[in-house]
Predict the structure.
Amino acid sequence: MSQIRQILDMNAFDASTGGEGAVKRRLDNLGAASVLFYREPIEMVAAKGAWMEARDGTRYLDFYNNVPSVGHSHPEVVAAVSAQVAKLNTNTRYLVEIVDDYLEALKTKLHGQLSNVVMTCSGSEANDLAIRVARAVSGKTGVIVTETAYHGNTALVTEVSPSALKRSPLPDHVVIVPAPGAAAYGEDIANGFRAAVVAAMETLETRGHGTAAFLADSIFSSDGIFADPAGFLLPAVQAVQEDGGLYIADEVQPGFGRTGDAFWGYERHGIAPDIVTMGKPMGNGFPMAGMAARPEHLAAFCEDVGYFNTFGGNPVAAAAGLAVLRVIAEEGLQGNALRVGAHLKAGLSEVAAGSDRVTEVRGAGLFLGVDLGAEDGSGAPDAGYTVQVIDRMRAAGVLIGAAGRFGATLKVRPPLCLNMAEADRFIEAFSGAVKG
Ligand SMILES: Cc1ncc(COP(=O)(O)O)c(C=O)c1O
C-alpha cells in the first residue's frame, strides 16, 4: 500500500540533516517552518519568461510554479508596479482611482451576481474569509473538501486542508470526499462525486453542523489534477446549493486562464459559484488575492464583524493586477494555454503509451497531471520513482513538482507564455527521465 504524503513534504530537502552553506543559513533563519524544494536545494538569482537562473549559472525551464503566470519578471508588470510604488501606496480607506479601475476590470471576468470583491494578500486569507461568509449566510458550520485538498495556512483554513495535516485528525465539522477520478468513482464521475458529497452533507447534518460550504479547487491541484469530463462538478455543487450551503470556488490554482478553455476553472463545469477566491497568478508574483461574493452575502457577514486588510487591495497591487489582465488579453495567453497545453498533453501521452511507468496523463490547458507507477507494471503509485524523475528532470534543466494523495503525480504547470519549443523541451526531458 502506498504511503499518504503531505503536500509540503513532497520533493523537499530533508531539514533533519542540518544542511551546509546557504542551506544551513536558511534553516538557521526559518527553523522548522523552512521548506525547500529538492533534496539538493537550488539557489536562484534571476528569472525571465519561463526560465529561472541559478547561482551557478544553470538555466532551468520552470514548470513548477503557477505564480509568474504571464512570465517571470514580465516587463509590463514590472513597469506598472514600479510606477505605482513610486507614486502612491496606501490602504483601501482612501479613495484611489486605480483600485476601482482594477476591481471593475476584474469584475468583467466574473458573473454578474458576484459584484463585491474583497482584496486580501494571500489565498489563505481569501478562503478564510469565504468560509466565514458562508457560515454567516447559511447559519451552519460544516465544510466539505476533497481528501487531499490544500486551501491555505490560517487556523480555519488549515482545518479544511487535509494535505497539510501531518498528525492532527480532521475536526468534527470537516468531512472529506475522495478526489473526482475514475479510481474512486469509475466511469460516472459526476454522479459518483455527487453521491459522495451528499453523503458528506448527511454526515455533517448528523453531527449537528449542517453544510455551510463545499470548498473545492476545480482543477484539484493537490489531489493530483482532475479536470475531465468538464461539467462533472455541477451535480455536486447543485446538491449543496439546494440544501442552503454555498459553493466556494477556490480559483487560486486554475484561475486567470490557465485551463485554456475558460478564464476560471469553475466555468468549465457550468457552475455559478456563490463565492470565488483567487490569488497566486493574480499579481504575477506581487502578493495579492481576493474573494468575490454577492453583496447581500458580504453584508450578512459584515453585520456582525468588520473586515479590513491593511495591505489588501493597495494601489500597487491594483497596478500589478491590471497589468496582468492586460497582458493575458494582449498576448492571448488563455488561447496559448489551450494550444500549447494540447500539444504538451499529446506529447506526454505519447511518452505514456511507450512506458509502463507513466500510467495516466490528465488535465486541461497548461495544468496537467502525470501519474507515475511501480516497476512491476501494476500501476500502483510510486512516490520514490516520482522523486527520481523529478531529480532527473532537474539534471536536464527542468523544474517540476509532485502532487496527489501518494505524491506520485507530476504537477505540470508552466507559465502561460510557454511556447511550443519549450513544451517540446519538456517532453524530451520527461521522456529521458522516465527511462532513467
Ligand atoms: C488551491 C489553493 N488554495 C489556496 C492556497 C493558499 O494560497 P496562499 O499560499 O496565497 O495563502 C493555495 C496555495 O498553494 C492553493 O493551492
